[in-house]
């Protein structure tokens, strides 16, 4: 699973990033509790190591770990809803009812923004553009984030894009475009709703919350 990492490397990177954040904000870590979000299916060992990093590495007075979906829905002022979280490597549907996570109804797919970016890179290569270096991959990311959109109708180098602009977002609804057999976003959402008690489904469908970088495509909420 993608969140399983080599902790000796992960800890060093995370420590560097957070130290930079604290330094930029001119905050004294030792007097500010840390609130961290995590996937709903994080292992105990993963959570323990994360807390240890902040409590012992940064000397934070307190650490609170909370599920990303819960924080997303609380941020809207609601306590009931279906959180659709599309990150770099994982898409998750997190049903929340009256402030509690419906863990048995949670659905996830190892398909996210990274796959969309690789798909866009392939499209550009097929169009004749050379996209082979790390810098090229960064250019693809910028193109994805600034030019691509979600079509409401699913049917020093200048790069010209036509309908290719909506292909990456379309892959969320049809992963087979990338050669993947992951469930579509529509199927994932519906599967999560159906796994919830029938009396809760109407409230969940009426309160769909989007979060994660790959939900920021123009047209995505309407789709």
TrEMBL record:
Query: Reaction catalysed by this chain?
Result: ATP + H2O = ADP + phosphate + H(+)
Q: Which PANTHER family match?
A: ACTIN
InterPro entries xref list: Actin, ATPase_NBD
The question of whether Signal is a record keyword is answered with yes
**In its UniProt entry, what is this protein called?**
Actin, putative
SUPFAM superfamilies registered for this protein in UniProt: Actin-like ATPase domain
Specify one Pfam family.
Actin
Is Signal included in the keywords of this UniProt record? yes
Keywords annotated in UniProt: Signal
- Signal peptide region: 1-19
| Record Gene3D superfamilies | 3.30.420.40, Actin, Chain A, domain 4
Tell me the organism. Answer: Eimeria acervulina (Coccidian parasite)
Return the similarity comment: Belongs to the actin family.
